[in-house]
Amino acid sequence: MEERHKKILKKKYKDLTRDLRPDDIMDHLIQEDVFDFNDIELVRAQKVNQLQVEKLLSILLTRGPRAFGVFLESIEERYPWLHKDLKKADEESARQPQQPAPKQDENTSTSDARQPFQETEKPSPNQPLIPEEQTCVKRPPQPGTQTREKAVVQGTAGGSEPPLTDEEKVTRKMGNMQLSNQHTRFEVPPKVDSNRVTEKQLNALAGKLGHEWENLAIHLDLSKADVDRFKADNPYNTRSQIFSMLMAWRARRGGAATVGTLIRSLEDFGVGLDLKFLTQTS
């Protein structure tokens, strides 16, 4: 993706995280080969819509030059106000003239180009050679200037840093989002790893999960129709909906529905729970 397109997305970050729903556009991103199914799982693994948009944008920024145009196509129908703002910003940035790099003589280095030319006085044949370090005269520091080392020390001692701009904050946050799925896996004790998960364990898990359970169901290879059925069967009890979903997963996996398999699937999804309770046999 071009640098100017990255800047546009970062400047519109607040509007995108407020208005956009990733599920509305991800089919188009897959169809145009900008996203793959692993990207979709990473986005849907986030628990709230804002985090899903942040994850989507962090992935989008790493894609090729077509990504911005495909993203505009994906929001044109459902989000015309966002499409209009982004397209206008793109047209304005395209009209801005590119600043050419300053030319310099081919035989002049970058550091030499910043220094005035001084003719070196040739030593007299009878004049003894003087070591170079003794002939160099140190220039006194100019008023209002300081060395880089001194500036760093003073900045550290003062304990203050220049405030980040909104764009820098967004850049840092998106960079951190790319590391959000890296974590240490919980070690499942070998004695329970291959044990088939029990109804008691699934019931306990159902009591700990929240509104993210619908996305978890998709992660566990259940369908949207399955989710709708669980909700219709238990319209007033969320825990019962979640328990029905977990039991359906257990029935479909059969003997492969083990404690170890469940824990690893939950970790891959990004459930922020202490999963140790699933390893307790009593």
TrEMBL record:
An example Gene Ontology biological process = signal transduction
Output the Gene3D superfamilies linked to this UniProt entry.
Death Domain, Fas (1.10.533.10)
The CARD domain extends over: 1-90
User: What's a Pfam family this protein contains?
Assistant: Death
Q: Where is this region: Disordered?
A: 88-168
Q: Which SMART domains match?
A: CARD (SM00114), DEATH (SM00005)
Q: Death domain: which residues?
A: 198-282
- InterPro entries tied to this protein: CARD, CRADD, DEATH-like_dom_sf, Death_dom
Q: Per its record, what are the GO molecular function terms?
A: death domain binding; protease binding
For this protein, the record's PANTHER family field holds:
DEATH DOMAIN-CONTAINING PROTEIN CRADD
The protein's name in its UniProt record: CRADD protein
Which species expresses this protein natively?
Branchiostoma lanceolatum
